[in-house]
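In response to reviewer comment 3 from the previous cycle, which asked for concrete evidence that the modeling workflow produces usable outputs, we include below a single protein chain processed end to end. The sequence was submitted unchanged, and the resulting structure tokens are shown without manual editing.
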Amino acid sequence: MDTPGHRRTAALRWAAVQRFAEFLQIADSLPPTMTFGLEARDRNTRDLFGHLAAWHQMMARWHTRALEGVKTPMPSVTYRWDDVAELNMAVWRVVQELTLEGARAAAIRSHNALLTLLDEASESQLWTPGLFEWTRGTTVGSWFETIMVHHYEWAIAKLRRAIRVSRRGTGSTLGARESEPAPSTSAGVGGKRGQ
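The workflow returned the following structure tokens.
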């Protein structure tokens, strides 16, 4: 059935698959030992893979528990949205225990798990604003978009910036232009952010 929700879901899935493939291609082309400078976190491709996997897993937990009717603390039991910077540092510390291969595999697994959840969701589950309390009045689809598409774009920007800086041989401190996507308030694929 070709409905606006179906087209929107297809566009979201396509964008998630394309951006993740682009991220993988760029990340896999870099030397495994390449670092991005002196940032507090996300200093190499392992860190980016681990960061993506952690946020995929949070998204999967929020959505799955909501489908089960279980209220879930967001973004986690320990952290609130005002504490996202601290949550990301905690994620980074955990990722330091992983190998590049382990973090890459975790990101691929969790990306595929989110695609499965996306495929299993109905149009109304994805695109009805406020259907689930955890979406904070937005749509599940907009959260998939932020956690997947916008996060991949953020990671790609980090990698591209690291490559540019590396070619200049100047070291790297990535700036705010590659800042991480904020928690979802978008209207979905093709929608306006901040609604």
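Confidence is low (pLDDT under 50) at residues 171-178, 184-195. We consider this sufficient to address the reviewer's concern, and the full set will be provided in the supplementary archive.
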